[in-house]
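Raw record, unedited: GyrI-like small molecule binding domain-containing protein
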Amino acid sequence: MKFEWRKQEKELYLPKEKPIKINVPEQKFYTLSGQGDPNGQQFSEEVSALYALSYGIRMLAKKGLIGKEPFEYSVYPLEGLWALSDEAVAEGRAFDKADLVYKIMIRQPDFITEEIAFANLEQVTKKKPNPNNQKVKFETIEEGICVQMLHVGPYSEEGKTFEVMERYCSEHRLSRKTFSHREIYLSDGRKVAPEKMKTTLRYPVK
């Protein structure tokens, strides 16, 4: 049976259009960090690098070359941690996409080890060279208690959803642990109209 994160891990990835509190467990990711406007060519190439690596792992698992037996699954969605640069915050500058600092990532199955991850990185780089591969990291991340909510619409209107999340936190005596936030991209921007885009928004709380 094929493992589908949209079905088996629905609570983690597909919330409704209202805030919820959730405990996000330890997860493994291929990650890439950068700064600047995500609409540029550099960001696009970084995303391509992560997907190539993720599909490489998926093929190894499907063929039974890693793990105890063949395992078929859907590649996890692209995620991004977003914040403003320290300089932009310190100077109180007006919002500029050039000041964005990000870490983009794609989750990998729990049975993937660092050894497997970097062996795959080497193999994929030989078949499909990408200069961004040298910046890729394999990380284990545990977010813990978070508030998350589904945002439907263009990225430029996420502020409205964050306002709803902030009211929820205030009502439940929760406070953000960081100024950064996570976005999980559930829609393909090349195929879906901006007003129908679905993005899960999440940040850790205490």
